[in-house]
Design brief:
Helix content: under 10%
Largest sheet: 7 strands, antiparallel
Oligomer: single chain
Number of helices: 1
Structural class: mainly beta
Length: 290
């Protein structure tokens, strides 16, 4: 195992947060890292939740406008349905990439008994894309590209790793990589230099940026500037983490619950559109999930 990064300018950890459990939705428990007072956003990312839900808890009917939600199932299954008639179930290892755009009202509920776990990421859209038509990209686990080398395996939800690319279209340029490192292994992942990036540790513990200190599960690590991230698993157990990066939008972010726009006026407009059922929310008043 090498003692240093292969990058001349490695990305180091500049902020570390423990995502503590809190209640959200209807009886769901989430560990929120981005989207808390200590880290309100990390352009272009607005929120990351690690959720844990057992029926009858879940996320009943609610609206969105102005951004994308990415739901990645770690365990169990969730059914999503919306007011446009779209319905689908994602299971362990599947991902749903939803562009809410000008407006969606949907529900996200667990399927079957037991505990259902996953990650939900909110990605902002630039002002030119905030009012696009809603769109879904859903990929089954077996159709998501993967790569493996020297004790390191990666699932490529978005972006590229080990020369393998994802087929997901990201309006806001994004990388989303799910890594598992066997004990004693290491990995050096390039990240586009202008992008913001962070790590969320799902399981185990690892050394990120520098081999000197390790961080355990449920921590979010914000990375500073540089060419890429070096990671070492010096423990006796597997390390699983997601590495997420994106091109900053560099526009004002005004958020009111599930609406994310550029100005307070646009937020008031979104709220009124939802209440009055117009400008993308026409079906909101008649619809409820089954």
């Amino acid at each position: 195992m090498s003692k240093s990064s292969v990058f001349s300018r490695p990305r180091l950890v500049v902020k570390k947060l423990l995502a503590r459990a809190q209640n959200e939705g209807d009886g769901a428990v989430v560990r929120r890292s981005i989207g808390r007072p200590e880290l309100q956003n990390l352009d272009p990312f607005l929120m990351l939740d690690e959720f844990s839900v057992s029926p009858p808890a879940g996320f009943p009917d609610h609206p969105h406008r102005g951004f994308e939600t990415v739901t990645y199932m770690l365990q169990g299954a969730f059914t999503h349905q919306d007011f446009a008639g779209h319905k689908g179930t994602i299971r362990t290892g599947d991902v749903q990439w939803m562009t809410a755009g000008r407006g969606i009202v949907h529900s996200e509920m667990p399927v079957g008994p037991g505990t259902h776990k996953g990650l939900q990421l909110w990605i902002n859209l630039s002002s030119k894309d905030k009012l696009v038509e809603p769109r879904y990209q859903e990929l089954l686990h077996e159709n998501i590209p993967k790569a493996e080398k020297d004790g390191v395996s990666v699932t490529i939800l978005a972006g590229e790793s080990m020369g393998v690319k994802s087929q997901i279209f990201t309006r806001t340029p994004t990388m989303y990589l799910d890594f598992t490192l066997k004990p004693g292994s290491e990995h050096h992942q390039p990240i586009p230099e202008p992008w913001n990036a962070f790590v969320y540790i799902v399981e185990g513990e690892g050394a990120f940026g520098s081999p000197d200190s390790t961080t355990p599960a449920h921590h979010c690590l914000v990375l500073g500037p540089g060419e890429g991230l070096s990671v070492w698993n010096k423990s006796s157990k597997p390390l699983r983490f997601v590495l997420i990066g994106g091109q900053p939008i560099n526009e004002p972010v005004v958020q009111y619950g599930p609406f994310v726009m550029n100005t307070k006026t646009e937020i008031m407009q979104a709220y009124q559109d939802y209440q009055l059922g117009r400008n993308g929310f026409e079906r909101a008043r008649q619809w409820s999930s089954k």
